[in-house]
User: Fold these one by one.
Assistant:
Number 1:
Amino acid sequence: MHKKQKRDIFLFILGGVVLYFISGMVDELRVYQGASIAVYVIAISSIILLTGYSGQVSLGHGALMAVGAYAAAVARIEFNLPIILCFVVAVLASAIGGALLGAAAARLSGPYLAGTTLALAIGLPSLANQFSVLGGEQGLLFDVGFPPLSLGEEFTQYKWFFWIAGLAALISMWVVKNILSSRYGRTWRAIRGNEVAAQLSGINIARSKILAFTISAGIAGLAGALLSMTIGTVSPSAFPLALSFSLLTGAVISGITTLSGAMIGAVVLVAIPEIADVVAHRIGSSEGVTTNLPGFLVSAILIVTVLFVPDGPVEQHRARSAKKLAHKK
Amino acid sequence: MKAMNRRKLITVSAVLAAVSLAVTAVPAQAAEVGVSSTEIKLGMTLPMTGTASLGYNKIPGAAKAYFDYLNANGGINGRKVTLVVKDDRYVPTEAVAKTNELILKDKVMALLAPLGTANVKAVAASVNPGRRGVPVLFVNTGFSGFADAKKYPTTYAVLPSYIMEAKVMGQYIKENFAGKKIGLLYQDDDFGSDALAGFKTAGVTFAVKVPYASGSQGAAAAAGWITKFKAAEADVVILFGVSSATSAMLGVAAQLKYAPQWMLGSVGGDATTIKLTGVPAGVLYNAIGFSPVPATTDMKDEYVKLFSDIYAKAVPGSTFDLNVLLGMNSAFMAAQALKAAGPNPTRKSLLAAIDSKGSTFANSALVPLGYSKTSHVGLTGYWVGKYSPTGDLSPIGGSYVTYTTDSGAGAVVKSTYVRPAMPAKGLPN
């Protein structure tokens, strides 16, 4: 094994151990929020892969998450598959969906692609209303079961969710990171940089774009299945248009080309409503302010990010230290 | 250099994770979560922003108005009742997150009137108030399933179920529109299938049934529905959908001068909400409607009079409508449940109080409550009314005729229930 890879594996395992200890130290609410953060990390990394690396915009990742969530729930309910296989089914189902979408997307770009994926985000979740096997408006229960008894009586459901989601996040970040530094990752960056030049150097543009969509969709599907695990159900209303938008917001705040920044976006998405709550309480404001403050704060952070750190805080920091280093030399 | 950065980034990520999970000290617990010597804390999640919030966002203000009135008059055995409200935007994920905050961070004693079938289901599955022993009082949905005391041991319904409503409608049709051609507009999901089940039990045969997919309702769709009702020559058209479907239908019907005998389900039948969408009030004139609580304009009703006075002082300038009345009614019922739970209420004693005394709780509804040890069914029927030229629902012939039934195969009977007098000053006795 390459030396670098070894070190990376070590760091990811270390991350897992750190998360494990944290999960034992904090109260249940934080554990639940930790699980939500892990889910968002996965979802945002799928957008970073697609938009940041292959240069394709998707406003419809919420719909791909819904595909994964429904696939996992149906696999659980109808076929009674073990939970790990349900997640595999989720990845496969949404990857197939992503491949189909990718085939269309490869012919589109810019606003046309954004429009197509937007339509998907609006239309797809409500399609579930039309099939009774998908449970209509109320949706399906998605029960991953209680944590194994060997973990002890005190081990809560949310800690179990956090472990599953945290492990999934670590694994998928690891996979995405490796894909991005592989030949495919370089191919995508070439396409994003200049399609014509990439084509001239022998890259099959359409195939590469479809592949990016497929992988990104598969990861989004995993995030969808995990999201529905944390809320115990799958229903069309759990995947609104606002979800797709907030993921994109998270990705921009993370730095759309920085995978390791996904954490920042995810934390922001989960923490903002709570921070807004505290702020609203401090200033003792009216209900109107309290209910609109989270949306306002996220928008403000988005604008500030775009204005001052368009590539995201991590990228900015990296560029600055690279500059400093160059100066020293 | 690159490797060093990567390590730094991962460290940063790990630190961020730690920060995000920052430990919050858990305060020492009192006798019961959410109950101190001076305060009882309740929590509510519902859509306060977004498209689904129209009308519903008045409920917290209404409930708080009642609790403020209660607190000004001594509260519950000297404890004041406070309500923590969180916006779930009608999204199940949000409902779960906010309910977790209410239970784990705000430490409320019980949840009050959470709204929306999918949301309440998600909360039941993930947060699992049943296992935690957290009471979920008076859920704001007509889905009959939440009355199942085995499946949702701490959850109590309050609205009559959609099945009950369809059965009452069916009975009214039999008595008044025998031999007429009946048309039905319904939502193509569980909301609609509950309705179909109720109509089937009531033995109603339809000349035409028009389903619509949730989200598809609009003026263009409504024109299509009207074509179908016209083709079937329906004399009576039942609109058993959400407000936006009712509004679209009535708006387009007014333009096309299509005027069958309308019959409106209670979900989409709130006149204030329909009028807000621009439908002229006159279109509602003579339509038949159903409600478990008195007409909101009936100032002769002691509850409506008191509640509207309290609301007008607390939220000046806001219309007293069905959402407000139901919100205050749930708050009033919660106050009685807390009072009945003893001098030092606990979650357990609160649940026990509703099981044993819930069916006798005073409230504004004109139909009985169905709570018992084995049943968490709330209100069990409706009165039938007609809309006035100004769009207000009032009882036919000036006096309330109520029907009661269940969500099963039970008959629909004209109710002899006489609502007990309101406790003095509208405070729990």
Note: DSSP finds 13 helices and 14 strands in chain B.
Number 2:
Amino acid sequence: MSASVVYALAFYLASAIFIIGVVRKIVQYAKIPAPLKIPTMPAPTTQAGVVVRMFTEVVLFNSLFKSNKWIWIFGWMFHFALLLAVFRHLRYVIPADSFLMPLIGHEIVQAFGKYAGFAMLAGLGGLFARRIFVDRVRYISSPSDYAMLLLIMGIAGTGLMMSFVEHTDIVMLKEFMLGLLIFNIQPLPSDTNLLVHLGLVIALMIIFPISKLLHAPGVFFSPTRNQVDNARTKRHLAPWAAELEADRKAGE
Amino acid sequence: MADFETPELQEYSVVPKLEKGTMAGSAPFIAKPQFQEPLGYPGELVDNWEEKVITKMDDLRGKYRGFQVFLDSCVKCGACTDKCHYYLGTKDPKNMPVARQDLLRKVYRRYSTFAGKFFGALGIPGFVGAADLNKEVLDDWYSYFHQCSQCRRCSVYCPYGIDTAEISMAAREIMATVGVGQKYCNQIIAKAQTIGNNLGLPQPALLDTLEGLEEEVEEDTGVAVKFPLDQKGCDILLITPSADFFAEPHVDGLMGYAKVFHESGISWTMSSSASEAANFGMFIGSYETMRTLSLRIREAALELGVKRIIFGECGHAWRVAYSFLNTLAGPWDFLDQNYPIPQHICEFTNDMIEKDELKFDKSANDHMTLTFHDSCNVARGSRMGDKPGGQMDIPRAVIKAVCNNYVDMPNDTIGEATFCCGGGGGLLTDDLMELRVKGAQPRMEAYKSTVDNSGVTNLVAICAICKSQFTKVLPYYGFGMTDILSLHQLVSDAIILTGSEDDTSEDSDTNESE
């Protein structure tokens, strides 16, 4: 079997694990009731307020900012750079005539995405250094915590190599990616940087739904952040808690 | 004073270096069978407890979204590591919120996630932060989940809002379910359920105490202020922590509430069957117990035919009342809907002040300079008034209406960042004295800085636990045990009762509420 076929199959497998795994978790979170109102106060008293609170958490990492400026700057830099890099990469998987192409293909998006790799590495490096040098963070770190940082650093590093040191055959790569979308396996360029880059991305996709990377969907379901502070005015009863009420109605 | 060293207070708070195992020996007494069985828990550790632990954990994961999301979401970023007062005071790494959670999370990872099962099968569960469950782990749980006061400070700083309180509650419920409950909490819950309050004071004893208070106030002021118990047809049912009936400085607060009610002219009563605001069901993580205790209040309200329910000064009680009471014992359709249900005594007093119904002689408190300790569960688990943050603003507004000298402690130790007193969450027991003293260190440090820099003389609180805890630990840090005051004690001392000797009636030049 050629590398192209192995990578193609791995991509299909990883995508399936990623999508099914994450969807399963999201369904699980959505299904479990939150029987008590536990927003961390002071909390917004309206749904619109909660949207603002979630926005500041997800986009600006507000709570983390309050906590520790070093973790905040490294963490935020990494995540924002990752977003830019992913955005830039869309170019390799959407057809040339897509309506998105003028945006994705725009020089500015591409340039930002390209240099974002450095910001990613810097952010990850900072987080890695904290795990080694801050005794409290070292204490709570498992090998997998280091491994995950190294994995993403590997992705960013090999990506930067391809951007700045040794280009891969980008046209061929795009053919391969577009082929994947219609189950038509095309040859993949065989340079090491690319193979390592894609291999690590596949690993990341597989790890995602079975690891702490679940913080991404998790934050949206966190009751301390997404609940409205309205317990006095609105009665809130989980289905399993409602079952307890049966005895009371009779007794009252 | 005891066989441990009281931490030294620094001028600036320093995040300590880790010292492993300093608190490994700290654990409250385990509940004997007679305190376990009334709550429906087995009397002692059951045979197949490992299996039962996992079953219960699975059950709770299916019941509480927060528990499941929090177990999955932690990335070990370290944001919470220096936020817990017990870590700051004890230096024990297992008192860092994330490390405390991990005691349970590692077991969840091992038995309920693919990563834990996979690496567990390879013999290296530790690679993914998973670990086998054994007696040593259970002992760790018992020790360290009773070194969390469920104060929620960590949840303010977590980028995912992970609340260690939720994990601690779950852990305690799991432990009780397999036969390892905490004596202090379970014993108290039994008293509240059978007698009506945590101290086990029956109706005759309460009546006696309240009569004594009436005499005391009348002697003091010349005004017959009543402390009604079990009177039907009143407007207000007051639910207050039972410590308010006799402990110092709590009882001075109760006198304050009575005077405010008296001046407001609104009829009120207490109930002997629901003579307890605190709800220890939260401490042991039991929804059912919390609900049973809350229903006592509903029954009392129905039986006495009141229109409103007001809670006295009690932190965790106010969290349960504000955030959970509607869920646990509502709907409150039989009460007057024009008032918040339930209402906090500070909200009531503040309303009266804003309506200009109360007269004060602020100079009565001039011999003191005060600072206010935001109780953790009020600040981060509840609200007062209709705006977020009212739980911080309203108590301060009341204090400033009744005294002239007020200074706040440093910003990173008050409001949403407030430090727990060190005795909350079911830890206010003598078998945890070392923990309580060390856990109070961050608050004591902040208090000391206002004492040194601003001449503060007293600390004001609105929580029965805070008051008892500070009374006990202030002396360890070289302060007087009477530094701690009830907020309504200040109100009580400054209020001018109509018809009293101090009452200058029409001439209201003493009323300087700003």
Note: DSSP finds 21 helices and seven strands in chain B.
